[in-house]
Amino acid sequence: MSSNTMTPGTEPSHFAKIWNSNIGYSFRKNPVAIVSMAIFLIIAISSLLSPLLAPFDPYDPASIDIMNSEYPPFWVDGSLPDFSLGTDDQGRDLWSTILYGTRLSLLIGVCAVALQAFLGISIGLIAGYVGGRLDSLLMRLADIQLSFSTLMVAIIFLAVTQAMFGSETFNQYAVFFLIAVIGVAEWPQYARTVRATVLAEKKKEYVDSARVLGFGPGRIMVRHILPNSLSPIFVISTVQVANAIISEASLSFLGLGMPPSQPSLGSLISSGFDYIFSGSWWITVIPGVVLVVLVLVINLLGDWMRDVLNPKLYKG
């Protein structure tokens, strides 16, 4: 019997197929992608397991003592063994607060990108498939949206929302406000990309065959045309998660995002900024380093994915 003969039950798993594909081969041969993925997984898993890994709960007032405020990290004289990375101005353990804050920043980033993708993909599919005046109208709306920066739209919306509902209500639902405004502000990136793919695909024979078989426009767009747009969508989503995290951090730093009682990386940096020149630099610097590293590895993974999924750039 030949050694290449497949025996029953030896079909490779989905993970094995991906690992042995061009994407898996490129990943194994790219040390930057491997290191970036390892760092991202460490940060993401640690933040998701923050209730188990964090020695203190920053949301529990009973575990916070104002008398423990501004203790330095372990490598600085005057530190306490209970607080490895020191404490912030409220007496919260900085390690625990960073874990919870990173989880919140990742949650806002991923949910905002999911909203962007849903709006942008839907609008792009409809604009490209229907065409005509509807296409022109939707693309002009996208152009208008792109003419305004995300931060400018978010600042105006959140400032008005805070004034309308009051600070207490705003702080209670700040997560949802941030997801909504960041998601709505960035949908044109997806819409323009998906529309370009639809315009190229809708004239091909497989689309005509689907129409002859009696499939409706919705099924043709979602089941037949959309899968051909997944590669650029994955690349955009990776970069947009990093952009959404930066937007959340920027808005929280300006006081229009997460309140200090619900720590995110942005609100942590903001709360410690007043103390950076008074000697308590760690309150701002350590969360800032975590934010920079997180955004950097996500962008590096996005660059690698763009090169692999683009046949004109991928060289094997």
TrEMBL record:
Q: Which GO terms describe its cellular component?
A: plasma membrane
**Origin, by domain of life?**
Bacteria
Q: Which SUPFAM superfamilies does the protein's record reference?
A: MetI-like
Biological processes annotated in GO: transmembrane transport
| Pfam families cross-referenced by the UniProt entry | BPD_transp_1, OppC_N
The subcellular location is:
Cell membrane
Query: What are the ABC transmembrane type-1 domain coordinates in residue numbering?
Result: 102-302
User: What is this entry's stated membrane topology?
Assistant: Multi-pass membrane protein
Could you list the residue ranges that cross the membrane? 32-53, 104-132, 144-164, 170-187, 233-259, 279-302
Keyword set, alphabetical order: Cell membrane, Membrane, Transmembrane, Transmembrane helix, Transport
Assign the protein's first listed, main location to one coarse class. membrane
CDD domains reported for this sequence: TM_PBP2 (cd06261)
- Describe the family membership recorded for this protein in Swiss-Prot or TrEMBL: Belongs to the binding-protein-dependent transport system permease family.
Q: Which protein is depicted?
A: Oligopeptide transport system permease protein OppC
Give the species.
Aliiroseovarius pelagivivens
